[in-house]
Amino acid sequence: MQAISHVQNLNSYLIICRSKPRFDKPVRLAVPVRCVYHSDSVQFPNGVGSSRVDWQSSCAILSSKVFSQDQDSGDKSNTSSASDHLAAAVNGHKTSLDLNLVPLDKKNKPQPPAKQPPQKPLTITDLSPAPTHGSQLRVAYQGVPGAYSEAAAGKAYPNCEAIPCDQFEVAFQAVELWIADRAVLPVENSLGGSIHRNYDLLLRHRLHIVGEVQLPVHHCLLALPGVRKEYLTRVISHPQALSQCENTVTKLGLNVTREAVDDTAGAAEYIATNNLRDTAAIASARAAKLYGLNVLADGIQDDSSNVTRFVMLARDPIIPRTDRPFKTSIVFAHEEGTSVLFKVLSAFAFRNISLTKIESRPHRNRPIRLVDDANVGTAKHFEYMFYVDFEASMAEVRAQNALAEVQEFTSFLRVLGSYPMDMTPWCPSRGNP
């Protein structure tokens, strides 16, 4: 009886997390993705072919097989060569499927085929794309090649096709419009704190968190070859990177102004493109190699234990499990403001569920709440949305009961995702990209 109840609760969770219907027709992005990616091909896992053209070619060869079997012994001698040519290539595309064509001897007499087991009927798996486990995934990230987000995408999905996007919102849209399969975006840094923009976008878009990855950040001071630190007048980088290196840059004795740009690798690219010899960038060592810059100072972050946490986003949620540590992210709000926050938190405390993060953001649709008071006048209070991460899987009964209790106190509750925790050990390294 307990197992049946568990499945029913799990199905309820999947209904809550169901994403919007997929688009039947391709839709163009309002803001183009700054990348060039290869056209995708449909993978047939049973060796039928590597693209739709191969599949069509295989079907044509099947037709030629039937035609060859119907030929009598009076056919002309060029039948064999024509059949062999058709088996080798159709419309200039080589096929990867062995169709067991009937061989013909020199006298054009059909020979009986060798006894082979009957061919297995085609199933839906033969016509469906190969499952994407990481090697064929297209992963969107914000920035240009050499950004830390690109390194996080490679760590989350090795051998993936990384797609750079010029804005965070473009990365969200790339997944929603089927241009990318996943998006890897930063949500918080151990020094700079939360990336609030992405928290707002998580609520605006209907993507699901399917995983997390923690990436140690190793900052370097980069400049054009031949430029010395004494010649610098400004330093440019992402605002988070500037704040993470503020004390170190001051200790270097640099009389420079600090200017914020979209991303760290973009700062390196900007210096190299415009040949700026009075400007340095804070970026990764890989960015220096990509854009031909020299490393003036290595490891300039204020804290060697500088880590950025990224989340992986997908169109559909994953099925939560209990065989490994899971984390669940939710967002909720209440019409009565923060007065119910203690009741919500107690729902987790009574069930011994640890909270790893709580983040408050102003309610975008209703940022101010008015409270009438006959004696004083009208009081104004901020309305907040609360983001909470807790260490439990939605497959656990205690997590399901906790959310059921939370729902009683809140006017809005949404599960952003229940996903495996990043348990990979890490240590400060001077070789990180």
UniProtKB/TrEMBL annotation:
The protein's Enzyme Commission number: 4.2.1.91
UniProt keyword Kinase, yes or no: no
InterPro entries in the record: ACT-like_dom_sf, ACT_dom, Preph_deHydtase, Preph_deHydtase_CS
GO biological process: L-phenylalanine biosynthetic process
Domain Prephenate dehydratase per the UniProt entry, residue ranges: 138-315
Pathways involved: Amino-acid biosynthesis; L-phenylalanine biosynthesis; L-phenylalanine from L-arogenate: step 1/1
Gene3D superfamilies, per database record: 3.30.70.260, Periplasmic binding protein-like II (3.40.190.10)
Domain ACT: 329-420
Annotated keywords: Amino-acid biosynthesis, Aromatic amino acid biosynthesis, Chloroplast, Lyase, Phenylalanine biosynthesis, Plastid, Transit peptide
Main location: plastid
GO cellular component: chloroplast stroma
GO molecular function, one term: prephenate dehydratase activity
Region (Disordered) residue spans: 103-129
CDD domains noted in UniProt: ACT_CM-PDT, PBP2_Ct-PDT_like
Location of the protein in the cell: Plastid, Chloroplast stroma
Annotated catalysed reactions: L-arogenate + H(+) = L-phenylalanine + CO2 + H2O
Annotated Pro residues bias: 110-120
PANTHER family: PREPHENATE DEHYDRATASE P PROTEIN (PTHR21022), PREPHENATE DEHYDRATASE-RELATED (PTHR21022:SF19)
Function: Converts the prephenate produced from the shikimate-chorismate pathway into phenylalanine.
Name of the protein in question: Arogenate dehydratase
